[in-house]
Design brief:
With 291 residues, the protein is of the alpha+beta class. The protein is built from 9 helices and 19 strands. Strand 2 and strand 3 form a beta hairpin. The longest helix is centred in the N-terminal third of the chain and has 11 residues.
Length: 291
């Protein structure tokens, strides 16, 4: 099932994408929660009921007539792992950046989250805005101290992410948080594909283009698997439904090629079975942004 958040005629709600149409969740389950995070927290019963109703559903809206929004704009956490693809480790080593001995974690402040087709802003204070195609994971069940063998069971679904990064800010601090958390630098979507639809999240084709030029192409085979990541994080913190995890990027990032994003650039990230997001880089006009 593809769970989306969308706007049409001034109203924003959640729905299910079926082919080229969007069916409102309330049409499938009148008493359904109002957000995807709450829907995941409610457990499997509402999703199962919606799945049964979906086979008989009619109406809805053409996908082309709605504006897709960030599916989970109200996440409590957005965690991300660095240096988790061997090819990316190797290109970083060539740039003089040593590989971490353990899982390398940082947080993206949740205020960076934006929609799958929204504009993203090049900061006025950064000259090195970079892209990172990533497979995103959303937690579906409240959990702590999760064994690797049980980690699949706490995943609610998957999404496409671009871990946009201000490299000059990233490397100006011992922690990555500031360089990873500029406003609009967390586009996610286009929807949440529920975990039952993805047999192996470690075998998906992932690509990123800038202005039509293919910059990144990788299979989502990671150094630390999603199950290892969840196990590791859950030793530290309780993971909640709707928490987001970005699982790392492959080779071909801008810093490795000396190619940084500029206003007017269009960045598209596509992951097999999950769809794509596409964002145009714009100048950071603070007056317009805060109007």
């Amino acid at each position: 099932m593809k769970l989306c958040r969308y706007s049409i005629e001034g109203t924003t709600t959640i729905g299910v994408v079926q082919g080229e149409r969007v069916i409102p969740v309330h049409a499938l389950l009148p008493d359904a929660p109002r957000t995807i995070r709450e829907l995941l927290a409610a457990g499997p019963a509402p999703l199962q009921a919606m799945g049964l109703a979906l086979s008989k559903a009619t109406g809805g809206h053409p996908l082309s007539a709605v504006r897709l929004e960030a599916p989970i704009p109200d996440a409590q956490k957005y965690m991300a792992i660095g240096m988790n693809y061997q090819a990316h480790v190797e290109e970083a080593a060539a740039a003089g950046i040593s590989a971490p001995r353990n899982q390398l974690w940082f947080n993206k402040q949740v205020s960076c989250i934006t929609g799958p087709y929204d504009a993203v802003r090049k900061p006025r204070v950064s000259q090195k805005m970079d892209y990172e195609a990533e497979l995103g994971v959303v937690i579906g069940r409240r959990c702590r101290y999760v064994n690797e063998a049980d980690a699949r069971g706490v995943v609610g679904g998957y999404f496409v992410a671009n871990d946009l990064t201000a490299r000059d800010w990233q490397f100006a601090s011992p922690t990555y948080t500031l360089g990873k958390s500029f406003d609009t630098h967390g586009p996610i979507g286009p929807w949440i594909t529920t975990a039952d639809e993805i047999d192996d999240p470690h075998a998906l084709q992932m690509r990123l283009w800038v202005n039509g030029e293919l910059r990144q192409h990788a299979i989502t085979k990671m150094i630390h698997s999603i199950w290892q990541q969840i196990h590791h994080l859950s030793q530290v913190m309780t993971l909640e439904p709707g928490d987001l995890i970005a699982t790392g990027t492959g080779a071909g990032v801008g810093i490795g090629q000396g190619k940084f994003l500029q206003p007017g650039d269009v960045v598209k990230v596509e992951i097999e079975q999950l769809g794509h997001i596409e964002n145009t880089v714009v100048a950071d006009d603070a007056e317009a942004y805060h109007a």
